[in-house]
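> example.struct
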């Protein structure tokens, strides 16, 4: 392999010729490559995709059983064509009355898309540098409406958070039902990758949960009211009265945490009891545990609330504590649940759906190493005290596109197999 070829590979996307060598050098630095350290060899016959990235760098094996085993292959989302979707029942309930997103929808400003993509690309390059294979989605046209015989909504959402859509359990990747109309077709962003994995890994199980109808019967109309207020919402959350009804199974993949043969699933806005029951019947060899966190007035996804770091240790959002009666399985099996550190910010960035608790939305690379958002100084400090090596990753300007470091990734391969971390159940 000549140096020349290395440079070509790393700079193969359409580059303005005039900027020449300096631009290439910048790209090389940016991507963590150096002229003296050739890029990993591209497999013979691998094609460049439409983003100019080379194809498979290593054999594809889909395998991931938990949130902490050494990560070797991951999908990192893109901010491309990110949209603020129009009003719809399940989404409305998540947007607080005083949010800057109330009443506006459409494609997000290009400069915010570019900035978010810069951060996501940097994150992908950092993971690659640490030996993790990174794949990226192929963005569909999110400006297109989502229309089925049962509903119509004027735009879609985006493909920044693969974690919301794809649930990897062992050799299976399961496309969640999703619970927002604007996210009904989101799996299409990942279909080229699913096809590729299916072609390359004879043991890969590509599954899709039954697509829900998402008629008005799926949502409680009272949740639409602007006058509800946080107190009432907290009371409803405690009573497990959420925006979604029990009309049909609904779940987002980001409501599920994987602990080997146990799956812990949040019952909330985006996942209903029938969705949890569907997961239970779908994974008959697993034990599936429903949890809920009454302190959260907008319970959407478990990954800014409950964060396992390694066997025996979980961070819990101190404003959304796991109720006492649901702690037994953890206590009986020597799992420690500690309060997460406070977020470093008082408010989320502009046009963001998520709360400031994306501070604890971390990506564990192995039981001793964790990626934490670089501005979250308290969370980094706590990880350090808990004995983790902290890898700071700048991502805050991408939060608005669908979340933090856990959200914007989906596991393809972690070392290890299915273990029982709860022998005393
Ligand atoms: O706290 O707003 C964000 C989770 C995104 N997957 C929150 C939850």
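> example.seq
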């Amino acid at each position: 392999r000549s140096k020349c070829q290395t440079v070509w590979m790393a700079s193969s996307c359409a580059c303005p010729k005039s900027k020449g060598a300096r631009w290439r050098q910048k790209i090389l630095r940016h991507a963590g490559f150096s002229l003296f350290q050739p890029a990993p060899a591209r497999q013979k016959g691998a094609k460049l995709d439409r983003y100019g990235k080379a194809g498979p760098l290593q054999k594809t094996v889909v395998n991931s059983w938990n949130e902490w085993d050494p990560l070797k292959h991951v999908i990192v989302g893109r901010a491309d064509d990110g949209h603020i979707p129009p009003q719809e029942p399940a989404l409305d309930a998540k947007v607080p009355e005083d949010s800057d997103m109330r009443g506006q929808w459409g494609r997000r400003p290009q400069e915010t898309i570019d900035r978010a993509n810069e951060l996501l690309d940097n994150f992908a390059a950092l993971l690659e540098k640490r030996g993790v294979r990174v794949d990226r989605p192929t963005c569909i046209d999110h400006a297109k409406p989502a229309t089925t015989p049962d509903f119509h909504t004027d735009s879609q959402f985006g493909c920044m958070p693969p974690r919301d859509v794809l649930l990897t359990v062992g050799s299976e990747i399961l496309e969640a039902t999703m619970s927002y109309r604007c996210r009904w077709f989101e799996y299409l962003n990942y279909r080229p990758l699913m096809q590729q994995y299916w072609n390359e890994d004879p043991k890969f199980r590509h599954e899709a949960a039954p697509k829900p109808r998402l008629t008005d019967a799926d949502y409680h109309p009272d949740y639409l009211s602007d006058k509800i207020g946080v107190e009432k919402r907290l009371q409803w959350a405690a009573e497990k009265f959420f925006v979604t009804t029990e009309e049909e199974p609904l779940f987002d993949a980001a409501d599920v945490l994987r602990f080997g043969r146990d799956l812990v699933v949040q019952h909330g806005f985006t996942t209903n009891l029938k969705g949890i029951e569907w997961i239970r019947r779908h994974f008959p060899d697993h034990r599936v545990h429903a949890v809920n966190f009454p302190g959260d007035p907008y319970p959407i996804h478990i990954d800014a609330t409950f964060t396992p770091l390694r066997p025996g240790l979980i961070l819990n959002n101190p404003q959304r504590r796991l109720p006492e009666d649901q702690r037994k399985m953890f206590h009986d099996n020597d799992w420690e649940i500690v309060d997460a550190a406070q977020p470093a910010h008082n408010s989320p960035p502009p046009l963001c759906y998520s709360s400031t608790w994306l501070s604890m939305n971390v990506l564990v690379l192995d039981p001793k190493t964790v990626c934490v958002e670089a501005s979250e100084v308290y969370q980094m400090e706590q990880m350090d005290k808990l004995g983790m090596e902290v890898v700071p990753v700048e991502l805050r300007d991408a939060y608005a596109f669908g979340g933090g470091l856990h959200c914007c990734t989906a596991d393809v391969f972690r070392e290890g197999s299915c273990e029982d971390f709860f022998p005393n159940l």
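> remarks
Residues 254, 300-301, 303-304, 354-355, 357, 403, 407 surround delta-amino valeric acid (CB under 6 Å).
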